[in-house]
From TrEMBL, chain A:
Its main location: membrane. InterPro entries: AAA+_ATPase, ABC_transporter-like_ATP-bd, ABC_transporter-like_CS, P-loop_NTPase, Siderophore_ABC-ATPase. It is a peripheral membrane protein. Belongs to the ABC transporter superfamily. GO terms for molecular function: ATP binding; ATP hydrolysis activity. SMART domains: AAA. PANTHER family: IRON(3+)-HYDROXAMATE IMPORT ATP-BINDING PROTEIN FHUC (PTHR42771:SF2). This is Putative siderophore transport system ATP-binding protein YusV. Residues 7-243 form the ABC transporter domain. The gene is yusV.
TrEMBL record, chain B:
This is Putative siderophore transport system permease protein YfhA. The gene is yfhA. The keyword Transmembrane applies. Its main location: membrane. The keyword Transmembrane helix applies. GO terms for molecular function: transmembrane transporter activity. InterPro entries: ABC_BtuC-like, ABC_transptr_permease_BtuC. Pfam families: FecCD. It comes from Leisingera aquaemixtae.
Amino acid sequence: MPDTARLRAEDLSAGYAGTPVLDSLTAAIPDGGLTAIVGPYACGKSTLLRTLARLQPAGRGQAVLDGKAIHRQSSRSVARRLAILPQTPAAPEGLTVRDLVARGRTPYQSALWQWSRQDAAAVARALELTNMTGHARRPLEALSGGQRQRAWIAMALAQETGILLLDEPTTYLDLPHQIELLKLVQRLNRETGRTVAMVLHDINLAARFASHMIALKDGRVFCQGPPAEVITEAVLHSVFQLPCRIIPDPLHGTPHVIPA
Amino acid sequence: MTWTLRFAALSVQISRRALLAGLCLMALLLAAALLAVQTGSYPLSSGQMAAVLQGRGTGIEQMILLDHRLPRIAAALGAGAAFGLAGAMFQTMLRNPLAAPDVIGFNAGASCGALAAVILTGGMMLAGAIAGAALAAALVLLLSWKDGLAPGRLILTGIGASLTLTAAADLLVSRIDPQTASDMVTWLTGSLHSRGWGDAARVWAGLALLAPVLWRLHFPLARLAMDDGIATGLGLPVSGLRLAVAGAGIVLTALAVTAAGPLPFVAFAAGPIARRLVPGGKPALLAAAAAGALMTLLADTAARMVPGVQLPAGVFTALTGAPVLLWLLLAHFRKGTL
C-alpha cells in the first residue's frame, strides 16, 4: 500500500457518540485515481469519507492530508486542497446555480475580498465542466435531480482542489442520470487530474467506473485494489453475504455481479 | 444582476435587487418618520416643525418635538433595527424562520434579566438584559438539541420558555418599588412611552459598535445557512461562527428590549419580509434592519394615534405579527416540516 498518498486514514477509529463505526482502519486514497468505497449498509463508508474530510472528529488514530493530521490543520487551508460534497445537501430557497457555485470560492474569500477575477474564472470553468453554464441563472429548486447534483458538483469544483470527495452522489437519481453523473466524475478525474473518492451503493457501477476500490466490512477494510481484484465471488460472499457469479461486463470488460 | 466594486485587491459585491429594496425601505422609513413627528395628542404641522428646528417655535412646541417626539422616534428606529437584525441572524443561522428571538423566549429572557438587574442594582438594565437573553438562549437551545436542532422541539421548547419567562417577569415587576414599577409595567408590554435621548443614544451606540462585527459576520452567515457539512467543507469554522452569531444576536436583542421592551413579532417578521424583498438565499441583514425599524416606528405611531389611552406599541406588532406566525406554522404543518 502506498503510504505516500496525499489522503490517508491511519489506524483510524471514529463514529457517533458512544457507537464506534470505524475500527482501527488504515487505507490510502491513491493520488490521481478514481476510488470507490463500497460495503453493506452501516459498514462505515460515509463515516470514513466524512472523517477523511474532517466533517467528523477522529477518535483514535488520524486522517492524514499532505502528511499532517487533517483535524489539526486550518479548515480554510484544507478547503483549498480538498473539497467534499456531503449526502443530499440543503441550500436556502431561491439560491441560483451561479450563486451556489460561487460559494465554492469561500476558502479564497472574506468580507473584504468578496469576488476576485480568479473567483469569476473558477466559477465559469466549473459551470463549463459540468455543463451547467446554460442553467446558471436558474434557482436550484427549478432544476431536475440530475441537474441539481451537477450544480453541487460544480460548487465543489469551484474550490479548485486536487482532491474531490463525493458521498453517494447518485442517490435519488434514476439510472440514466446515475450513468451521466458517473461519466462526468470520470471525465473530471481523467481530464483535470483530480483525485476522486466516492461512496457508492451500486457495486456494478462502482466496478465499472472506479480505478481503485475499497471494500469495507464492520468498520474495517476487508480488501482493496483494482476492481478486478476486489469484485470476486469470495469477497462478495464475505462482505455482502451475497451468493453470486461474476462475469465480465460485455461492453466494458469490467467485473459484473450477477446475484444468484 | 450584481455589481462588483474593486479597489486594488479588495472587492465588494452589491446586488441590484438589494440596493433597490434598500432604497425603497429608506423612502418608506423617511415617510413614516415624517408622519410620526407630526401625529400625537398635540399635532404639529410642517410649518410649526420648521419653526422649532429654526429655533422660533413656542416653548411647548419645542418641548414636544425635541424632548419627546424625536428621541422616541430615534429609539423606535434603533430598537426596531436591532430586533430585525437579531431575528434575521438567528433565523438564518438556525435555518428556520420560526427561530426568532421573540418567538422562542430570548426577548422574555432579556426582560427578566433587565428587571432583575433593576431590583438588584437599581440600574444596569442593558447588562441584565444581555445576561438574561444569553441564559434563555442557552436554556432553549440545550433543551431542544438532539443530534442537531429539530425545528419542532425548538419551537415548542421556545414557546414554553417564553411563557415561563414572561410570567417570571411579571413576578419580578411586583418586587420593584411602586414609583418605578408603573413605568416598568408599561415597558414590559413593549412600549416606547417616555423614551428620552439617553435611551435612543444607548441603542444607536450599541448598533454602531456592532456594525463592523455584523458586516464581518454577514459573509460567512450566508454560507452557514446551507449545511454544517457544506460550511465545514468550505473551510468555515462552524462552531466558532455559531457562537459569534449567537453572541451578536443576543446583544442586539438585549439592546432592543432595553429600549422598547419585549416588543413581540418584530424580530420574527422582519427577516422573512427582507428575504422576500431581496431573494437569492441571502440573509439580507440590512433590509431586515430597515424592515424592523419600519414596523416598530409604525406600531408606535399607531399606538399614539389612538386618542384617550396610552396603548403600547406591542399591541400593534402582535396584531400584525401573530397572524404571520399562525400562517407560517400552518404552512410548516402542511409541508410536514415541523
